[in-house]
Write a structure and sequence with these properties.
Elements lengths: L1 H11 L3 H10 L7 H7 L5 H8 L7 H9 L10 H24 L10 E2 L9 E2 L1 E3 L2 E3 L7
Antiparallel strand pairs: 1-2, 3-4
Organism: Dreissena polymorpha (Zebra mussel)
InterPro entries: PDDEXK-like_dom_sf (IPR011604), Restrct_endonuc-II-like (IPR011335), YqaJ_viral_recombinase (IPR019080)
Protein name: YqaJ viral recombinase domain-containing protein
Length: 141
């Protein structure tokens, strides 16, 4: 069992340069096979939310399968996901226009998967603007 745990952790260890390369190479996000592969077995914001809001009657195996991504699924039919996909471009454009009014030389660029070398099993998804980092979420309510 110890060997399995060590092998699991070793699989996720990454140098800062590897983390930067991953972010650069996955900027196409869900259109990128590399993006999809590197999301596997990592605790994403969605998984963390599902764990935090877990109901007592939820089968533990269902949670484990979700974290391990053994049952990959297309989430685009879920209302909140569909809403986000539909309005992401508009939200980014409005955010960019607002920030350009408030900050000189503001730039907005796409980003890929952001892995923190100290916490390689979790993911940070962010949009980068200059030297500040901000996450933009589109809320349906």
């Amino acid at each position: 069992m110890q060997w399995t745990c060590d092998a699991f952790v070793q699989y996720f260890l990454a140098t800062p340069q590897q983390c930067q390369n991953l972010e650069t190479m996955t900027r196409a996000q869900n259109n990128s096979l590399l993006w999809k592969r590197h999301r596997e077995w990592r605790v994403t914001a969605t998984v963390a939310h599902d764990i935090l809001t877990l109901k007592p009657q939820t089968a533990p195996l269902a949670v484990i399968n979700q974290v391990m991504k053994r049952e990959q699924s297309n989430l685009s039919h879920i209302e909140s996901v569909a809403f986000g996909l539909r309005y992401e471009g508009k939200a980014k454009e409005e955010y960019k226009m607002e920030m350009e009014c408030l900050h000189e030389q503001f730039q907005l660029r796409e980003c890929g998967l952001v892995v923190e070398p100290r916490f390689p099993c979790s993911l940070l998804l962010r949009m980068v603007s200059g030297h500040a980092h901000a996450t933009v979420k589109v809320l349906s309510k």
